[in-house]
Design brief:
alpha/beta, Aminopeptidase, Alpha-Beta Plaits, 2 domains, 9 helices, elongated, binds nickel (II) ion
C-alpha cells in the first residue's frame, strides 16, 4: 500500500513526458501580459479534458478552475502565465515562435506545474475532502494580474494559498521554503533638481543643478549604508540622470529616476523619509531646489505565513526527502503573489530549475525539465496536506 506521498510521486513521474511536451508548447507560444489568449485557451482545453470545473471569473486572459471533493476547506494554487518582451537566443528546437517575445522567466514551467498538479489532484479525489482552486494568473510581469483575480472574487473563502517560482541557482529536484519575507516591495522615485541655467564659462551667474545631482546621487548611498539597520535589507538604485543639451550650457534642471526595494513597511518609510530629506536639503545647500516624488510602493513584500510554510515544508519533505528541501534565500525582486497573501495565509516556494549562469530574464534562460514533475508534485502535495490539516483543525 502506497503512502499518499508515494502516490503523488508516482503519478508525477508517470506524467513527466506529458508535462515536458506541455512546457515546450507553452515555451514555443509565449504571450505578453494581458495578451495570453492562446495560453488561456490551451489551459482551458486541458482543464476541460480533466473535467475540472472552470469558474467564470470575467478575466480576459487567465483561467480559474475548481476541483471539489465534498465538504471541507478551500485551498488555492496559483501559477503565473505571461512572457516577456525579449528575443530568445537559446537555440532550442522548441524556442519561441514569436519574434521578440520569450518565456524568459520560466512561467511556461509554472503553468505546467499547476496543470500537472490538477492532473494529480483529479486522480486523487477520493483521498481528500474540500475544494482546490486553481488560479492561472495573467499579467504577473506587469504586477497587475493578481489584483484582477482578487477583484473577480476568486479568493473568496479561500483558507490558504500556495505558489512557486522557478529558481535558477537551485538544482532541479530541490525546493527552497522559508517563513517570512521572500521577495521585496518595489517602488520607483523621481528627483528633479532645479537651478538656473546659463553659460558654462560664467557659472557664478547660474545656479548649476549638475553638481547638486551628483551630490544627491552620492548622498543617497548613505541611506542604505548608514540609516537602514544592517540586519535589514534595502536597495536604492538610480537608473537614469537626464539634463543638459550641450557641453557649454549649464542646464536649468536635472532629473534622476530610480528604484527602491525593501521588505518591511518600517524600512520603506525610513528610506522614503531619508530620500526626500536628503534630496531637498542637499539642493538647498547649493542654492537650488529639489522635488522628490515617490517611491510609490506598488506591491507589498512576499511574506510567507509561518503555518502555511510549515505545511508546505512538511508535504514537500514527504515527497522529496528532507535533504532536498532547503531554506529559501530571499531576493529583492517583487511578485504580485504578495497581494493574495494580504488576504489569506500563503506560502511561496522556490523550485530549483538549474540555470545558474543564465537566470531570469536572460535571452538564453531555460529550465531543467526535471523540475516539471517536481513542481506538479510539490503543489499537489501542499494542497492535500493543507486540506487535511485545515479540515482537522476546524
Ligand atoms: Ni517570474
Amino acid at each position: 500500500m502506497k503512502t499518499e506521498a508515494q502516490h503523488i510521486v508516482s503519478l508525477a513521474k508517470d506524467l513527466a513526458p506529458e508535462l515536458i511536451e506541455l512546457r515546450r508548447y507553452f515555451h514555443q507560444h509565449p504571450e505578453l501580459s494581458r495578451e495570453e489568449h492562446l495560453t488561456t485557451q490551451k489551459i482551458r482545453d486541458i482543464l476541460t479534458d480533466l473535467e475540472v470545473e472552470i469558474t467564470d471569473c470575467n478575466l480576459e486572459t487567465g483561467v480559474c478552475g475548481r476541483i471539489s471533493s465534498g465538504e471541507g476547506k478551500i485551498v488555492a494554487l496559483r501559477a503565473d502565465i505571461d512572457a516577456l518582451p525579449l528575443q530568445e537566443k537559446t537555440g532550442l528546437p522548441f524556442a519561441s515562435l514569436t519574434e521578440g517575445c520569450m518565456h524568459a522567466c520560466g512561467h511556461d514551467s509554472h503553468i505546467t506545474w499547476l496543470l500537472g498538479a490538477a492532473m494529480i489532484l483529479t486522480q486523487m479525489k477520493e483521498k481528500y475532502a474540500g475544494e482546490i482552486r486553481l488560479i492561472f494568473q495573467p499579467a504577473e510581469e506587469r504586477t497587475s494580474g493578481a489584483k484582477d483575480v482578487i477583484d473577480a472574487g476568486v479568493l473568496e473563502d479561500v483558507n490558504m494559498i500556495f505558489g512557486a517560482h522557478n529558481k535558477p541557482d537551485l538544482p532541479a529536484g530541490t525546493v527552497g521554503i522559508a517563513p517570512g519575507y521572500l521577495m521585496a516591495s518595489v517602488g520607483g522615485f523621481k528627483i528633479t533638481v532645479t537651478g538656473r541655467g546659463g553659460h558654462g564659462a560664467i557659472p557664478h551667474l547660474t545656479q548649476d543643478p549638475m553638481p547638486v545631482a551628483g551630490a544627491i546621487l552620492t548622498g543617497l548611498q548613505s541611506i542604505v549604508a548608514r540609516n537602514v539597520d544592517p540586519l535589514e535589507s534595502a536597495v536604492i538604485s538610480v537608473g537614469s540622470i537626464t539634463g543638459g543639451t550641450a557641453g557649454n550650457i549649464i542646464p536649468g534642471e536635472v532629473t534622476m529616476t530610480g528604484t527602491v526595494r525593501a521588505y518591511s513597511p518600517e524600512v520603506q518609510a525610513l528610506v522614503t523619509r531619508r530620500l526626500h530629506t536628503l534630496a531637498s536639503a542637499t539642493a538647498r545647500a547649493f542654492d537650488c531646489t529639489a522635488e522628490c516624488t515617490g517611491p510609490k510602493f506598488r506591491l507589498p513584500p512576499v511574506d510567507n505565513d509561518p503555518e502555511a510554510t510549515r505545511i508546505a515544508r512538511t508535504s514537500t519533505e514527504k515527497i522529496l526527502g528532507s535533504d532536498r528541501v532547503l531554506d529559501a534565500i530571499p531576493v529583492l525582486a517583487s511578485e504580485d503573489f504578495s497581494l493574495y497573501q494580504e488576504r489569506t495565509p500563503g506560502c511561496f516556494m522556490w523550485i530549483g530549475s538549474d540555470s545558474p549562469d543564465k537566470g531570469w530574464h536572460h535571452p538564453e534562460f531555460t529550465v531543467n525539465e526535471d523540475c516539471l514533475s517536481v513542481g506538479a508534485a510539490v503543489l499537489a502535495a501542499a494542497a492535500l496536506e493543507a486540506l487535511r490539516e485545515l479540515n482537522s483543525g476546524s
